[in-house]
Amino acid sequence: MAWDEWEQLKAEAQERTANMQLNQASSQGESGGGGQGDLAVDQQDLAAIGDSAFKLFEDLGRYGRDAWSSSQTAAKNLTTQEFELGSGLDVVQKKWEKQLQSLVDACAHISNHMEFTKKTHQGDEYYIASRVSSIATLGKGFDEESKP
Predict the structure, then answer these.
(1) Cα–Cα 20 to 30 A to 102, which of 44, 55, 57, 59?
(2) Closest to 65 in 3D by CA, of 30, 96, 22, 34
C-alpha cells in the first residue's frame, strides 16, 4: 500500500466517523429534538392517560363478558347436537376470556401507574420548590448582611 493510498483511507475513515453520532441526543442545529430530548409530559397528559385506561378498564369489565352466557349456551347446544362447531365455540370463548382478563389487568396497571406517577411527580415538584425557595431566602439573608 502506498503512502498516498494510506492517507486517503485515513481521511475517508475520519470523514465517516465525523458524521457518526453515538449515545447522545442530536445537537440543536440537527433534526430530531433540538438538544432537549424527545420526551415531554405534563400532569394533564398523565391524568388523561390514566383516565382513559380507567374508563377502558370499567367498560371492559362491564361489557366484555356480555356474550359469555349466550356463547356458552350455544356451545353446549351445538355439542349436544354433535356439531364440532360447539367445541370450537367453547375454545374461542375461553380464549376471549383469557385475553379479556389480560387486557383488563393491563388497563388497571396503566391507570394505577399513572396515578402513582402523578403523585410522585407532585411530591418531587413540592420538594424542589421548597429547596429552591429556601436557597433563595438564604441568599437574600447574605445579601442583607453584606450591606453596610
Answers:
(1) 44
(2) 96
Domain that holds residue 63: 41-125
Torsion of CA 123, 125, 128, 133, to 10 degrees: -110
Contact between 68 and 97 under an 8 Å Cβ cutoff? The reply is yes
Nearest to 98 by CA among 58, 76, 73, 68: 68
| pLDDT, average across residues 51-61 | 90
Is a pLDDT exceeding 80 seen at residue 71? Answer: yes
Query: How many Å apart are CA 76 and CA 78, to the nearest integer?
Result: 6
pLDDT at position 117 is: 75
Region 92-99 average pLDDT: 92
Q: How confident is the model at residue 114 (pLDDT cuts 50, 70, 90)?
A: confident
Cα(60)–Cα(54) distance, integer angstroms: 10
State residue 33's pLDDT score: 45
Nearest to 118 by CA among 106, 110, 107, 128: 110
Q: Is residue 4 part of a domain?
A: no
